[in-house]
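Re-run with default settings, no changes from the original entry. Doing this only to confirm the output is reproducible before filing.
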Amino acid sequence: MMTGNIGGAGLRGQSAGETKLCTVGQSGSGLTYCGYDVADLAENSTFEEVAYLLFNGELPTQSQLDSYKVELFALRDIPGSLKSVLKLIPADAHPMDVMRTGCSFLGNLEPEQDFSHQRHAANRLLATFPAIMCYWYRYSHQGVEIDCQTDEPSLGGHFLKLLNGKTASEQHQRVMDVSLILYAEHEFNASTFVARVCASTLSDMFSCITGAIGTLRGPLHGGANEATMDMISKFTSPEDAKTKMARMLERKEKIMGFGHAVYRTSDPRNVVIKAWSKKLAEENGDTSLYDISVACEEFMWASKKLFCNADFFHASTYNYLGIPTKLFTPIFVCSRLTGWATHVMEQRDNNRIIRPSADYTGKNPRIVTEISERVEMQL
């Protein structure tokens, strides 16, 4: 039972339920999906395998994986009416609003009839999110109406081809795959908890995911990788980065991409994506962005004992992949959909409506006075 005034702490440290899906920050660090360490999954599996793991509780055999990829491949295209809606959204719209609208509208076109269709709904969203993002972006920014089907076998490769119009290198596809794995699930974070609250009312899958997207849109949850990219792109060298970050701290400016609500000593996802950022920098022949990022990491640890979270080195990684900064957080949606949808299913399996109480801090009991006797207050 949660008691006392915990609102000011944002419910940190409070258990709000049970899950078989994920552990976060046990003993100060660590992240597992269904018992598998995230670094192990990033090294030895693909995103489709991880999606299958989350949806089914076990990693697939080769035949199960092949069948699952065939299923996702067939679900990639988006309806013509959804394309028409995406074409109406202006280029200066927030990309997360595009993802939210795409998810909601698809739910109108292909509603989840009952809970027996929940896996199909989840797979449909997983397969279509790359096309929803890229169709809007390339039409609104480049005037191009793309074919939402590609021949790429992986969702990561599919996304990169939709975005750039050509097949990405094997290394770039692998980096994209790893990134999707790292972002796939993270226990009861804000957006996942919203999805579970919505699910607890027995709402449909599309409503649950739409709510999660809207929650991730907030800058205190999603968008740190975008903010990081905006910051490091302004630094000219590692030395310049440290100098300007010191000034930012003096002005008490918030520096995104550091620290975490749960992890205490490090974010296990950062080690993985930082290594890939270095590989891409070396491949690119210009390591300046990576070097600046490392300098930022060193400075923040030395001055504030704050470590990089998963978002920080994702900024340089995505930049090396040629991904526009404004699409960084929508990629998060393409990945975290797996975690959101699985939490919706888990909530439905053992449901009780989530309805916490609150500590009242308002006026003492009063009685209504005649309107002529009321004193006008300053609002």
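The radius of gyration is 22 Å. Confidence is low (pLDDT under 50) at residues 1-6.
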